[in-house]
Protein 1
Amino acid sequence: MPTVAPLDLDGHCLAAVFLDNVPHFVLADGAVHRLDNGHKTIQANDGLLSTFHDAANDRLITGGEDGKVFAVKAGGQINELASAGKKWITSVAAGPQGAIAYATGKTAFVRFADGKTKEFAHPRSVEGLAFSPKGMRFGVARYNGATLHFPAAEGKPVELEWAGAHTGITFSPDGAFLITTMQENALHGWKLADGKHMRMTGYPGKVKSLSWSVKGKWLASSGAPAAIVWPFSGKDGPMGKAPLELGTRGNAMVTAVACHPSQDVVAVGYDDGMVMAVRFADAKEVLLRRPGKGAITSLMWDKEERRIAFGSAAGDCGVIDISA
Amino acid sequence: MSDAQTTQIPVTVLTGYLGAGKTTLLNRILSENHGKRYAVIVNEFGEIGIDNELIVESDEEIYEMNNGCVCCTVRGDLIRVVEGLMRRPGRFDAIVVETTGLADPVPVAQTFFMDDDVRSKTKLDAVVALVDAKHLPLRLKDSREAEDQIAFADVVVLNKTDLVTPEELAKVEATIRAINPAARIHRTTRAGVALSEVLDRGAFDLSRALENDPHFLEAHDHDHHDHDHDHDHHDHDGHEHHHDHAHPSDIHDVTVQSVSLRGGEMDPKKFFPWIEKITQMEGPNILRLKGIIALKGDDERYVIQGVHMIIEGDHQRAWKDGEKHESRLVFIGRELDAERLKKSFDACQAA
């Protein structure tokens, strides 16, 4: 039976992550809580809006209402990486070679590991940011499509057009596909080799959480009463294929998903605070946490594949141990 | 999904041209001792002299929804800012959104109806338009936005009245009335309106909307008033396909019109399909609609309101003893066919 070690915090949890195998919980007020031989807290942004887990560097990038970007590392280390004045930092991302990106209003910035910063102005708001896993390339989700920049080189960006407001963005782990979440209840995708479109629709709600399975064979998503899991193992991605619907419930919506690091299993969080693990092959479900006070906002597996950290909109966070 | 959030934060939208007094009013909202805390979303920090962590600068970002409906627009930046603010709801009691001088108020308002996340946590309280008494005639000449802002408002603050003569003021007020007979108008200098007249109005709250609103009750009479003065409208719309008798074409540079309808008890089987059809077909031309409907065989007042194609309705309260069971409906928009609206509305009356 899985056991849950709860951590009841006061406020909206934006990210629950493991840093150096220690669970960290980042709240909207900028406090970073961790369970490291007891409950410890440090302060990051004064008002925290955006986070990105930089797995390669075992750190969390945060952006906030204070116009600052921080790197949070295990053990309570916090470094300010950038400051953009009084405007909100609405999106952050981390990429190869220690580079990070952040956005405020219509401008995206890339900060390289050596501290040099490059600015990318856009005609419309920068809604979402993601680095490609290969090469120094990053994508911006924007109104009517996405823009790909090559920050280490000069040259024109690549524009990918699709009508509507694109709010979030992710590259597949092999770099072959670019997927955006939209203001409408849909995902959009491009196969980067030939620009082919992929429409992934039918969600009753907005998609706010995406997670690639091991080797990018599947993309799990929230926004429905089940985790919607699209197949990406074929060369054309999910085109013409139906997604898996895992962990279907009649009375709750999926709000967060996190794929297992090595197996075809997804952890699914719901708007009533329940967490389940579901296997792709046979849709078998295991209840990990009963409903709580608020919608699950964040889930992450640890490297040992034994624990799952979860955060909620009401602050009732915790760590699930599935080995017990 | 069950809707657990019962406490929705009220949102006031402030519109008005540069120089109309928005900043003065905002400063008052932020500094006066009214016991409430406001988060303010502005398009530029610049002018507000008050340092407050809850003043958020946001670039106006209008997104057309990808559903083929041209009037379905939302403010994308507001969705994001409201989401961010509402993650820490304990910091403030209400939100004020200041729009740019040239802003179209419709996408702002529609954001609070069309986006599920925003809608679940906040509710639009009222749209307040600040108008510069001296410069309004000029503004109406050179832009459609000034007119839209008035047409769309629940409350009009007619500011800088000390800069015009009583005659000019009367004329400006008549123009505002002509554009929007349903709004409350307050004459002020230095935006000196009681804050209770602009905040927490519940103008979009169906349980409160139109309750004992004298202006709304008068609306019909205003139209008659205008009609009496208005027999030389042919040079304005003489070539239009539809001839619109009712409205204020004696005032120059006004393209918005209002159509006020009044009738007896309605047959719900006729009325609801009718209002649905009208808003579907005429949605792009309808800026606002508001109404109190007496339904046959129903002992409660039914209230409706709409923005373009979005329409909401609900029972409001029981009819009082001796209260006349009467239906009233006001459309504010452009190119509305008053005759046809009136005829088809009348046809919905219960036999």
Protein 2
Amino acid sequence: MDILTWTYILVGLSFSLYIGIAIWSRAGSTKEFYVAGGGVSPLANGMATAADWMSAASFISMAGIISFAGYDGSVYLMGWTGGYVLLALLLAPYLRKFGKFTVPDFVGDRYYSNTAKVVAVICALFISFTYVAGQMRGVGIVFSRYLEVPIEWGVVIGMCIVFFYAVLGGMKGITYTQVAQYCVLIFAYMVPAIFVSMQLTGNPVPQLGLGGELADGTPLLDKLDGVLGELGFAEYTAGRKGMTDIFMITLALMVGTAGLPHVIVRFFTVPKVKDARLSAGYALVFIAILYTTAPAIAAFGIYNAINSTSEKEISSLPVWVSNWQKTNLIAVDDKNGDGKIQYVADPETNELSIDRDIMVLASPEIAELPNWVVGLVAAGAMAAALSTAAGLLLVISTSVSRDLFKTFKPEISEKKELRIARIAAAGAVLLAGYFGVNPPGFVAQVVAFAFGLAAASFFPVIIMGIFSSRINKEGAIAGMVSGLVFTLAYIIYFKFISPELNTADHWWFGVSPEGIGSIGMFINFLVCIVVSQFTPAPPQSVQDMIQEIRIPRGAGKAVDH
Amino acid sequence: MAKDSGKMKAYWRKNLKTLFFLLLIWFLVSFGFGILWVEELNAIRLGGYKLGFWFAQQGSIYAFVVLIFVYVYRMNKLDKEFDVNEE
């Protein structure tokens, strides 16, 4: 059977599975809609968190980014995993003990202020929307590439699927479909990686293959350093960015991960504080499987790509090169007319351009695997995109129905609240779909900054809300606003107002806009502490609450107080 | 709440000590070995890897996983010791 038939079969099967699960796990109450009834096992929650976390970008693009960035790609690997340590140690257990449904809930109660809560809602909505628009676009691209339909149709199909299980099932439906999606995506990611690793290094474990030796006995990474050096590129294992910048970007990504509302909310779904800690551990195990494989795929991919094209006759290139030339992900331009490809660092004489997404998408073909593996990778990429989109849509709908409606109209009935949550979810799906079809130019750029904004706004006030009983509402509001405004201003200045100045010479302390969230975070901490010193301490009831969330006993299931 | 507050203070202090120790390792394996001292460590080899590069792209992630499970184990023991565990 050909690739397209296999793709239709495997994608169709995986989608029917998700819809089946959604029907089976419909939400009947607000508690089920918001936190899946609070009865999810730590293992299932860990898997769901991993699927929620790993987006189309992690699945398709990350390995390719590392291929071309080499050591510098480490910022994503460390940044997007190290945040889970912060989450497990500093946030998850205490927020679980606090026992409500959302991050703005916590901010509102801990800082005894609806103003603080509304600021938190705005941050949550802003972060989630920029993120989800990118996901919807990702869904559309994956669909169009594999099913050979226009991107617009891809987005619409994706919207219908997400609509079905997010609106119907709420958190309960999402959690159990995400468990299935994790299994699909990790299987699809690992199969080609294992085969390519065997081909190149003879070791079936990609994590070991990366440190393994090629057939001629040279270690893969040394060979790669040498080959890239000869072509005029920087060495694979050496850094190109400044050390300060690498440090700050890693920090911003780590802290941002721990501050993302759609990740934090997952830890409200488990029954106990103990489970929240454990479940963060499981989540990281499941994430680490993909994140330790990605650098291996990256190195194998760039090595294979150079090896099978550089200085080779254009007329006798392997089949996968011409296959992907059709999609414009690989482009060949014989500038000096010698009939061979010169892949070099100098853009004037370079004759080959490779899109980073090729490293994952073409890996089954490079390894000469059967057609069903290509279909499997398609199903995996869609699982990754859909699971993340669904998780984000839930945060948006919860923010609207619970954090906005319920705060200002506390008397609405449970049934009505559930209806508003569903309408909000439906509205969010439509809006996200609209942005997926008509992507505003800024979306792609802004997604990466969602982390910086989460780092500069949420993380400090949640941490201090737990670990200090002196921080008060004035400090928290001033901190959140100053962190957010500073980070946003820096990003807007360098990305939109004066993009021509966006170079290391003009950055403050050599920190790029990607890493500025770290500085925003320090500003937030500082402002928060100073302002709190000059304003009255929080009332006794809040002081008691802080003591209460610090000990695990008496958590009970997440309840609506 | 309102158990004996001296005991709760001791529990919290021990918790903070655990956190400090674990976060120190967290910082060391990623920001330390993977970024600040990566050049120095790259002089040492681990199979086909340079050690600093290995920490940045593999080792730090393994260490993160271990840290969380050590934390879970430590805290479960601490909760029992201070009689604040669930059920």
